[in-house]
Design goal:
By secondary structure, the protein is an alpha/beta fold. About 55% of the residues lie in helices and about 10% in strands. Bound molecules: zinc ion (ZN).
Protein backbone atom coordinates (compact mmCIF):
# COMPACT_ATOMS: atom_id res chain seq x y z
CA UNK A 1 0.00 0.00 0.00
CA UNK A 2 1.25 3.41 -0.85
CA UNK A 3 1.71 5.64 2.11
CA UNK A 4 -0.47 8.75 1.95
CA UNK A 5 2.26 10.72 3.64
CA UNK A 6 5.53 11.66 2.09
CA UNK A 7 8.07 12.81 4.53
CA UNK A 8 10.37 15.14 2.70
CA UNK A 9 12.16 16.76 5.57
CA UNK A 10 14.02 13.94 7.19
CA UNK A 11 17.38 14.81 8.47
CA UNK A 12 20.50 13.19 7.20
CA UNK A 13 23.43 11.98 9.16
CA UNK A 14 26.31 14.29 9.04
CA UNK A 15 27.70 13.28 12.36
CA UNK A 16 30.91 11.30 12.40
CA UNK A 17 30.40 7.93 14.02
CA UNK A 18 31.65 7.76 17.54
CA UNK A 19 32.96 4.60 19.06
CA UNK A 20 33.05 2.90 22.33
CA UNK A 21 34.85 -0.09 23.75
CA UNK A 22 32.89 -2.61 25.74
CA UNK A 23 33.96 -3.99 29.06
CA UNK A 24 36.21 -6.99 28.71
CA UNK A 25 35.40 -8.49 32.06
CA UNK A 26 31.81 -8.99 31.01
CA UNK A 27 32.92 -12.17 29.35
CA UNK A 28 32.67 -10.91 25.81
CA UNK A 29 35.36 -12.45 23.72
CA UNK A 30 37.23 -10.03 21.53
CA UNK A 31 35.50 -6.91 22.70
CA UNK A 32 38.34 -5.23 24.50
CA UNK A 33 39.31 -3.28 21.41
CA UNK A 34 37.18 -0.21 20.71
CA UNK A 35 34.21 -1.11 18.56
CA UNK A 36 32.82 1.20 15.93
CA UNK A 37 29.50 2.64 17.00
CA UNK A 38 27.34 4.91 14.97
CA UNK A 39 25.16 7.37 16.69
CA UNK A 40 21.53 7.13 15.83
CA UNK A 41 18.75 9.61 15.81
CA UNK A 42 15.56 9.40 17.74
CA UNK A 43 13.03 10.74 15.32
CA UNK A 44 11.92 13.90 13.72
CA UNK A 45 9.19 16.28 12.86
CA UNK A 46 8.17 16.68 9.30
CA UNK A 47 5.64 18.20 7.04
CA UNK A 48 3.22 16.32 4.91
CA UNK A 49 3.47 16.88 1.21
CA UNK A 50 -0.15 17.92 0.94
CA UNK A 51 -0.35 20.89 -1.36
CA UNK A 52 -1.29 24.10 0.29
CA UNK A 53 -1.49 26.48 -2.57
CA UNK A 54 -3.92 28.70 -0.77
CA UNK A 55 -1.59 29.13 2.14
CA UNK A 56 1.36 29.84 -0.10
CA UNK A 57 -0.58 32.45 -2.03
CA UNK A 58 -1.61 34.23 1.11
CA UNK A 59 1.83 33.99 2.55
CA UNK A 60 3.21 36.03 -0.30
CA UNK A 61 0.57 38.66 0.26
CA UNK A 62 1.40 38.83 3.91
CA UNK A 63 5.11 39.21 3.29
CA UNK A 64 4.46 42.04 0.95
CA UNK A 65 2.08 43.57 3.47
CA UNK A 66 4.61 43.26 6.26
CA UNK A 67 6.96 45.41 4.28
CA UNK A 68 5.12 48.54 5.30
CA UNK A 69 6.61 51.94 4.99
CA UNK A 70 5.34 52.16 1.46
CA UNK A 71 2.61 54.71 0.98
CA UNK A 72 0.24 52.21 -0.53
CA UNK A 73 -2.28 52.50 2.24
CA UNK A 74 -5.08 50.82 0.34
CA UNK A 75 -3.01 47.75 -0.39
CA UNK A 76 -1.78 47.52 3.17
CA UNK A 77 -5.34 47.63 4.42
CA UNK A 78 -6.19 44.77 2.07
CA UNK A 79 -3.22 42.88 3.47
CA UNK A 80 -4.44 43.39 7.00
CA UNK A 81 -7.86 42.05 6.08
CA UNK A 82 -6.31 38.99 4.47
CA UNK A 83 -4.13 38.43 7.50
CA UNK A 84 -7.02 38.83 9.91
CA UNK A 85 -8.95 36.25 7.98
CA UNK A 86 -5.99 33.85 7.99
CA UNK A 87 -5.25 34.38 11.68
CA UNK A 88 -8.89 33.62 12.47
CA UNK A 89 -8.77 30.48 10.37
CA UNK A 90 -5.61 29.30 12.12
CA UNK A 91 -7.02 30.02 15.57
CA UNK A 92 -10.01 27.87 14.77
CA UNK A 93 -7.82 25.03 13.46
CA UNK A 94 -5.71 25.05 16.60
CA UNK A 95 -8.70 25.10 18.90
CA UNK A 96 -10.19 22.14 17.06
CA UNK A 97 -7.04 20.09 16.75
CA UNK A 98 -5.17 20.50 20.00
CA UNK A 99 -7.25 18.62 22.48
CA UNK A 100 -5.89 17.52 25.80
CA UNK A 101 -7.04 14.18 27.18
CA UNK A 102 -7.68 13.34 30.77
CA UNK A 103 -6.58 9.74 30.97
CA UNK A 104 -6.28 7.65 34.12
CA UNK A 105 -3.60 9.05 36.41
CA UNK A 106 -1.74 5.78 36.42
CA UNK A 107 -2.20 3.30 33.59
CA UNK A 108 -0.85 -0.23 33.93
CA UNK A 109 0.72 -1.42 30.73
CA UNK A 110 0.43 -5.08 29.87
CA UNK A 111 1.63 -6.40 26.55
CA UNK A 112 -1.24 -7.25 24.25
CA UNK A 113 -1.37 -10.83 22.96
CA UNK A 114 -2.89 -9.90 19.62
CA UNK A 115 -2.75 -6.86 17.33
CA UNK A 116 -6.50 -6.32 17.77
CA UNK A 117 -6.09 -6.25 21.53
CA UNK A 118 -3.27 -3.70 21.17
CA UNK A 119 -5.32 -1.46 18.88
CA UNK A 120 -8.25 -1.66 21.27
CA UNK A 121 -5.98 -0.58 24.14
CA UNK A 122 -4.67 2.40 22.14
CA UNK A 123 -8.19 3.54 21.34
CA UNK A 124 -9.99 2.82 24.58
CA UNK A 125 -7.39 3.41 27.27
CA UNK A 126 -5.13 5.94 25.55
CA UNK A 127 -7.90 7.66 23.56
CA UNK A 128 -6.01 7.62 20.30
CA UNK A 129 -8.60 8.43 17.65
CA UNK A 130 -7.47 6.01 14.98
CA UNK A 131 -4.88 3.27 14.68
CA UNK A 132 -3.41 1.86 11.49
CA UNK A 133 -4.56 -1.74 10.93
CA UNK A 134 -1.12 -2.68 9.61
CA UNK A 135 0.61 -2.60 13.01
CA UNK A 136 2.46 -5.74 14.02
CA UNK A 137 2.15 -7.00 17.58
CA UNK A 138 5.70 -5.84 18.45
CA UNK A 139 5.06 -2.40 17.03
CA UNK A 140 1.69 -1.75 18.65
CA UNK A 141 3.00 -2.93 22.01
CA UNK A 142 5.99 -0.61 21.59
CA UNK A 143 3.80 2.40 20.72
CA UNK A 144 1.35 1.70 23.55
CA UNK A 145 4.12 1.20 26.11
CA UNK A 146 5.77 4.48 25.11
CA UNK A 147 2.47 6.35 25.27
CA UNK A 148 1.62 4.86 28.67
CA UNK A 149 5.00 6.01 30.01
CA UNK A 150 4.44 9.55 28.76
CA UNK A 151 0.86 9.57 30.05
CA UNK A 152 1.88 8.35 33.51
CA UNK A 153 4.62 10.96 33.72
CA UNK A 154 1.88 13.53 33.04
CA UNK A 155 -0.65 11.92 35.37
CA UNK A 156 -2.91 11.40 32.39
CA UNK A 157 -3.18 15.00 31.25
CA UNK A 158 -1.60 15.47 27.84
CA UNK A 159 -2.03 16.00 24.12
CA UNK A 160 -2.51 12.52 22.64
CA UNK A 161 -1.90 11.79 18.95
CA UNK A 162 -5.06 11.75 16.87
CA UNK A 163 -3.85 8.82 14.84
CA UNK A 164 -1.10 6.23 14.95
CA UNK A 165 0.40 5.26 11.62
CA UNK A 166 2.66 2.33 10.82
CA UNK A 167 4.57 3.06 7.63
CA UNK A 168 7.85 2.64 5.83
CA UNK A 169 9.76 5.85 6.51
CA UNK A 170 13.13 4.84 5.13
CA UNK A 171 16.12 3.73 7.15
CA UNK A 172 17.11 6.96 8.89
CA UNK A 173 14.00 7.82 10.85
CA UNK A 174 12.43 5.95 13.73
CA UNK A 175 9.19 7.87 14.05
CA UNK A 176 7.72 11.27 13.33
CA UNK A 177 4.94 13.74 13.94
CA UNK A 178 3.37 16.29 11.64
CA UNK A 179 3.77 19.90 12.66
CA UNK A 180 1.72 21.73 10.05
CA UNK A 181 -1.69 22.63 11.46
CA UNK A 182 -3.14 22.91 7.97
CA UNK A 183 -2.17 19.35 7.11
CA UNK A 184 -4.83 16.67 7.58
CA UNK A 185 -2.15 14.70 9.45
CA UNK A 186 -1.43 17.30 12.10
CA UNK A 187 -1.00 15.70 15.52
CA UNK A 188 -0.58 12.21 14.09
CA UNK A 189 2.27 9.99 15.19
CA UNK A 190 4.05 7.75 12.72
CA UNK A 191 6.12 4.72 13.59
CA UNK A 192 8.61 3.44 11.03
CA UNK A 193 7.90 -0.21 10.20
CA UNK A 194 11.43 -0.65 8.82
CA UNK A 195 12.74 -0.73 12.38
CA UNK A 196 10.56 -3.71 13.17
CA UNK A 197 12.16 -5.86 10.48
CA UNK A 198 15.02 -8.27 11.13
CA UNK A 199 16.90 -7.18 8.04
CA UNK A 200 17.11 -3.51 9.07
CA UNK A 201 17.89 -4.32 12.68
CA UNK A 202 20.62 -6.83 11.81
CA UNK A 203 22.19 -4.28 9.53
CA UNK A 204 22.19 -1.61 12.24
CA UNK A 205 23.43 -3.99 14.92
CA UNK A 206 26.23 -5.30 12.72
CA UNK A 207 27.47 -1.77 12.22
CA UNK A 208 27.34 -1.00 15.91
CA UNK A 209 29.04 -4.23 16.86
CA UNK A 210 31.57 -4.07 14.04
CA UNK A 211 30.43 -7.32 12.44
CA UNK A 212 30.90 -8.23 8.80
CA UNK A 213 31.72 -5.66 6.16
CA UNK A 214 31.84 -2.87 8.66
CA UNK A 215 34.41 -4.77 10.64
CA UNK A 216 36.62 -5.21 7.58
CA UNK A 217 36.24 -1.53 6.77
CA UNK A 218 37.06 -0.57 10.34
CA UNK A 219 40.12 -2.83 10.29
CA UNK A 220 41.47 -1.41 7.07
CA UNK A 221 40.76 2.08 8.34
CA UNK A 222 42.67 1.38 11.53
CA UNK A 223 45.59 -0.03 9.55
CA UNK A 224 45.66 3.08 7.40
CA UNK A 225 45.73 5.17 10.51
CA UNK A 226 48.69 3.38 12.05
CA UNK A 227 50.79 6.51 12.06
CA UNK A 228 48.11 8.68 13.59
CA UNK A 229 47.70 8.23 17.33
CA UNK A 230 44.50 6.42 18.17
CA UNK A 231 41.83 8.74 19.44
CA UNK A 232 40.87 8.32 23.04
CA UNK A 233 37.89 6.07 23.82
CA UNK A 234 36.21 5.02 27.02
CA UNK A 235 35.27 1.47 27.89
CA UNK A 236 31.49 1.54 28.06
CA UNK A 237 29.95 -0.64 30.74
CA UNK A 238 26.54 -1.66 29.44
CA UNK A 239 23.79 -3.05 31.64
CA UNK A 240 23.86 -6.80 32.16
CA UNK A 241 20.83 -7.48 30.01
CA UNK A 242 22.42 -5.83 26.97
CA UNK A 243 25.69 -7.69 27.53
CA UNK A 244 23.88 -11.03 27.55
CA UNK A 245 21.92 -10.14 24.45
CA UNK A 246 25.12 -9.15 22.60
CA UNK A 247 26.54 -12.55 23.44
CA UNK A 248 23.43 -14.26 22.14
CA UNK A 249 23.40 -12.14 18.98
CA UNK A 250 27.03 -12.89 18.23
CA UNK A 251 26.37 -16.61 18.52
CA UNK A 252 23.24 -16.53 16.40
CA UNK A 253 21.50 -13.36 15.17
CA UNK A 254 18.37 -15.40 14.40
CA UNK A 255 17.93 -16.34 18.05
CA UNK A 256 16.91 -12.81 19.00
CA UNK A 257 13.37 -11.47 18.79
CA UNK A 258 12.54 -8.14 17.16
CA UNK A 259 11.97 -6.64 20.61
CA UNK A 260 15.36 -7.85 21.86
CA UNK A 261 17.14 -6.46 18.83
CA UNK A 262 15.43 -3.10 19.17
CA UNK A 263 16.34 -2.93 22.82
CA UNK A 264 19.96 -3.79 22.13
CA UNK A 265 20.17 -1.26 19.35
CA UNK A 266 18.77 1.50 21.58
CA UNK A 267 21.35 0.72 24.25
CA UNK A 268 24.34 0.47 21.93
CA UNK A 269 23.33 3.76 20.34
CA UNK A 270 22.99 5.30 23.75
CA UNK A 271 26.51 4.21 24.66
CA UNK A 272 27.88 6.00 21.62
CA UNK A 273 25.81 9.05 22.41
CA UNK A 274 26.94 9.32 26.02
CA UNK A 275 30.59 8.96 25.08
CA UNK A 276 30.16 11.59 22.40
CA UNK A 277 28.47 13.99 24.82
CA UNK A 278 31.33 13.67 27.29
CA UNK A 279 34.21 13.95 24.86
CA UNK A 280 33.00 15.95 21.88
CA UNK A 281 29.87 17.95 22.66
CA UNK A 282 30.26 19.20 26.21
CA UNK A 283 33.99 18.93 26.99
CA UNK A 284 34.01 21.89 29.35
CA UNK A 285 31.66 20.24 31.83
CA UNK A 286 33.45 16.91 31.52
CA UNK A 287 36.73 18.54 32.49
CA UNK A 288 35.12 20.51 35.30
CA UNK A 289 33.59 17.36 36.74
CA UNK A 290 36.83 15.40 36.46
CA UNK A 291 39.40 17.99 37.50
CA UNK A 292 40.21 16.25 40.76
CA UNK A 293 40.64 12.92 38.99
CA UNK A 294 43.37 14.41 36.82
CA UNK A 295 44.99 16.21 39.72
CA UNK A 296 45.00 13.13 41.92
CA UNK A 297 46.90 11.35 39.19
CA UNK A 298 49.46 14.11 38.84
CA UNK A 299 48.15 15.55 35.57
CA UNK A 300 48.31 19.32 35.51
CA UNK A 301 45.36 21.15 33.98
CA UNK A 302 45.15 24.86 33.29
CA UNK A 303 41.43 25.28 33.64
CA UNK A 304 41.29 28.97 32.67
CA UNK A 305 43.23 28.38 29.48
CA UNK A 306 40.98 25.45 28.65
CA UNK A 307 37.86 27.58 29.12
CA UNK A 308 39.06 30.04 26.49
CA UNK A 309 39.32 27.42 23.73
CA UNK A 310 36.63 26.75 21.16
CA UNK A 311 34.68 23.52 21.68
CA UNK A 312 36.61 21.54 19.07
CA UNK A 313 39.95 22.44 20.67
CA UNK A 314 38.57 21.73 24.14
CA UNK A 315 37.56 18.31 22.91
CA UNK A 316 41.03 17.60 21.51
CA UNK A 317 42.67 18.79 24.72
CA UNK A 318 40.31 16.70 26.84
CA UNK A 319 41.13 13.57 24.86
CA UNK A 320 44.82 14.27 25.37
CA UNK A 321 44.25 14.55 29.10
CA UNK A 322 42.31 11.30 29.20
CA UNK A 323 45.03 9.58 27.17
CA UNK A 324 47.57 10.72 29.78
CA UNK A 325 45.27 9.45 32.50
CA UNK A 326 45.00 6.11 30.74
CA UNK A 327 48.79 5.81 30.71
CA UNK A 328 48.98 6.59 34.41
CA UNK A 329 46.20 4.17 35.27
CA UNK A 330 47.47 1.44 32.97
CA UNK A 331 44.00 0.81 31.56
CA UNK A 332 41.20 2.54 29.66
CA UNK A 333 38.94 4.71 31.82
CA UNK A 334 35.39 3.38 32.00
CA UNK A 335 31.94 4.90 31.91
CA UNK A 336 28.69 3.28 32.99
CA UNK A 337 25.87 3.28 30.48
CA UNK A 338 22.44 3.21 32.13
CA UNK A 339 19.73 1.08 30.53
CA UNK A 340 17.58 2.90 27.98
CA UNK A 341 14.24 1.63 26.69
CA UNK A 342 13.63 1.88 22.94
CA UNK A 343 10.37 3.63 23.81
CA UNK A 344 12.53 6.76 24.15
CA UNK A 345 11.54 7.35 20.52
CA UNK A 346 7.89 7.77 21.55
CA UNK A 347 8.90 10.02 24.47
CA UNK A 348 10.77 12.26 22.03
CA UNK A 349 7.91 12.50 19.54
CA UNK A 350 5.43 13.15 22.33
CA UNK A 351 7.74 15.95 23.44
CA UNK A 352 7.21 17.56 20.03
CA UNK A 353 3.45 17.20 20.31
CA UNK A 354 3.33 18.75 23.79
CA UNK A 355 5.60 21.53 22.56
CA UNK A 356 3.26 22.16 19.62
CA UNK A 357 0.31 22.23 21.99
CA UNK A 358 2.02 24.82 24.14
CA UNK A 359 3.73 27.08 21.62
CA UNK A 360 2.73 26.47 18.04
CA UNK A 361 -0.50 28.46 17.83
CA UNK A 362 0.99 31.70 19.04
CA UNK A 363 4.02 31.48 16.78
CA UNK A 364 2.01 30.46 13.78
CA UNK A 365 -0.45 33.29 14.17
CA UNK A 366 2.35 35.77 14.75
CA UNK A 367 3.27 35.64 11.06
CA UNK A 368 -0.14 37.10 10.25
CA UNK A 369 0.10 39.96 12.67
CA UNK A 370 0.91 43.12 10.82
CA UNK A 371 1.76 46.12 12.96
CA UNK A 372 -0.14 49.32 12.35
CA UNK A 373 1.83 52.30 11.05
CA UNK A 374 1.79 53.78 14.52
CA UNK A 375 3.13 50.58 16.11
CA UNK A 376 5.76 50.16 13.43
CA UNK A 377 6.89 53.74 13.92
CA UNK A 378 7.02 53.35 17.68
CA UNK A 379 8.93 50.09 17.39
CA UNK A 380 11.61 51.67 15.26
CA UNK A 381 11.77 54.65 17.60
CA UNK A 382 12.11 52.39 20.62
CA UNK A 383 14.95 50.54 18.89
CA UNK A 384 13.02 47.27 18.88
CA UNK A 385 14.18 44.51 16.61
CA UNK A 386 12.69 44.37 13.16
CA UNK A 387 10.82 41.06 13.04
CA UNK A 388 9.62 41.34 9.49
CA UNK A 389 11.02 38.42 7.56
CA UNK A 390 11.35 36.21 10.63
CA UNK A 391 10.04 32.71 10.00
CA UNK A 392 8.60 32.31 13.48
CA UNK A 393 7.59 28.66 13.26
CA UNK A 394 10.70 27.37 11.48
CA UNK A 395 12.85 29.49 13.77
CA UNK A 396 11.76 27.27 16.62
CA UNK A 397 11.16 23.83 15.13
CA UNK A 398 13.53 23.45 12.28
CA UNK A 399 17.28 23.23 12.28
CA UNK A 400 20.45 21.92 10.73
CA UNK A 401 19.04 18.52 9.83
CA UNK A 402 16.21 20.04 7.77
CA UNK A 403 16.49 20.45 4.06
CA UNK A 404 18.38 23.60 3.06
CA UNK A 405 19.06 24.84 6.58
CA UNK A 406 22.66 23.74 6.91
CA UNK A 407 23.48 25.10 3.47
CA UNK A 408 22.02 28.53 4.23
CA UNK A 409 23.64 28.60 7.66
CA UNK A 410 27.05 27.98 6.14
CA UNK A 411 26.74 30.00 2.94
CA UNK A 412 24.75 33.01 4.06
CA UNK A 413 24.77 33.32 7.86
CA UNK A 414 23.46 36.92 7.71
CA UNK A 415 20.36 35.87 5.82
CA UNK A 416 19.98 32.85 8.10
CA UNK A 417 20.14 35.12 11.15
CA UNK A 418 17.45 37.40 9.75
CA UNK A 419 15.07 34.55 9.01
CA UNK A 420 15.81 32.47 12.11
CA UNK A 421 17.25 34.78 14.79
CA UNK A 422 16.67 32.51 17.80
CA UNK A 423 17.92 29.45 15.96
CA UNK A 424 21.00 31.37 14.85
CA UNK A 425 21.74 32.36 18.43
CA UNK A 426 21.15 28.76 19.58
CA UNK A 427 23.55 27.39 16.98
CA UNK A 428 26.31 29.93 17.38
CA UNK A 429 26.50 30.44 21.13
CA UNK A 430 29.20 28.09 22.40
CA UNK A 431 27.80 27.88 25.91
CA UNK A 432 24.31 27.09 24.62
CA UNK A 433 25.71 24.46 22.29
CA UNK A 434 27.65 22.74 25.06
CA UNK A 435 24.59 22.80 27.27
CA UNK A 436 22.54 21.15 24.53
CA UNK A 437 25.51 18.83 23.91
CA UNK A 438 25.04 17.36 27.39
CA UNK A 439 21.82 15.93 26.00
CA UNK A 440 22.84 14.80 22.51
CA UNK A 441 24.21 15.96 19.17
CA UNK A 442 20.67 15.91 17.89
CA UNK A 443 19.59 18.30 20.64
CA UNK A 444 22.23 20.70 19.30
CA UNK A 445 20.65 20.93 15.85
CA UNK A 446 17.52 22.92 16.68
CA UNK A 447 15.52 24.42 19.52
CA UNK A 448 12.65 22.01 18.81
CA UNK A 449 14.87 18.93 18.92
CA UNK A 450 16.50 20.18 22.12
CA UNK A 451 13.04 20.50 23.67
CA UNK A 452 11.94 17.04 22.49
CA UNK A 453 15.14 15.40 23.74
CA UNK A 454 14.93 17.02 27.17
CA UNK A 455 11.22 16.23 27.44
CA UNK A 456 12.06 12.55 26.87
CA UNK A 457 14.54 12.67 29.74
CA UNK A 458 11.92 14.25 31.98
CA UNK A 459 9.45 11.48 31.12
CA UNK A 460 12.03 8.86 32.09
CA UNK A 461 12.84 10.66 35.31
CA UNK A 462 16.48 11.13 34.30
CA UNK A 463 18.57 13.72 36.05
CA UNK A 464 18.70 16.97 34.11
CA UNK A 465 21.59 19.36 34.60
CA UNK A 466 20.68 22.82 35.91
CA UNK A 467 21.90 24.67 32.83
CA UNK A 468 19.95 22.28 30.56
CA UNK A 469 16.78 22.94 32.54
CA UNK A 470 17.38 26.69 32.50
CA UNK A 471 17.70 26.63 28.71
CA UNK A 472 14.59 24.46 28.44
CA UNK A 473 12.64 26.99 30.47
CA UNK A 474 14.02 29.88 28.44
CA UNK A 475 12.42 28.30 25.39
CA UNK A 476 9.18 27.68 27.23
CA UNK A 477 9.46 23.90 26.95
CA UNK A 478 6.37 21.93 28.01
CA UNK A 479 6.36 20.80 31.64
CA UNK A 480 5.00 17.46 32.78
CA UNK A 481 1.34 17.53 33.70
CA UNK A 482 0.17 19.72 30.82
ZN1 LIG B 1 12.44 15.29 16.73
Amino acid sequence: MISPIKADRFYTYTQAPSSCGFRASSGLAGTTAPQPLTVSNTGDTFESSVKQTEKKGLSKGAKWAVGIGTALVGLVTAGILVSKHQAGKLKKLYDENIVFQNLAEKIDFKEAKTVEEGIKFAKEVLKVGEVDKDFTLDAINFANKGLVEVSNANKGRLFIPKKLWYRDMGDKTLAGVVQDIESPYFGHLMVNKKFFEHETLNEKLNILLGIGKQKAAAESASKAAVKAPEEFKFVCNLDEKSINVIKKYKQSPDSLTIAEKRELWANLSNAGRIQENLLDLAPFTTLKNNLSLFEQNGIQVDFDDFAKLITKKQSEKLKELFTQLQEKLGHQPEIDIPYLSPTETIHHEMGHLQDFAKNLKELDIKRWKIPSFKDAYNNVKAGKKDTSGVEFVDNRWKGLTYKGFKELFEKNPKKFQKKYPDLYEFLTNQETQQTAGKVSWYAQTSIGEFIAEVYGKMVRGEKIADDVMALYKKYNGPMLGG
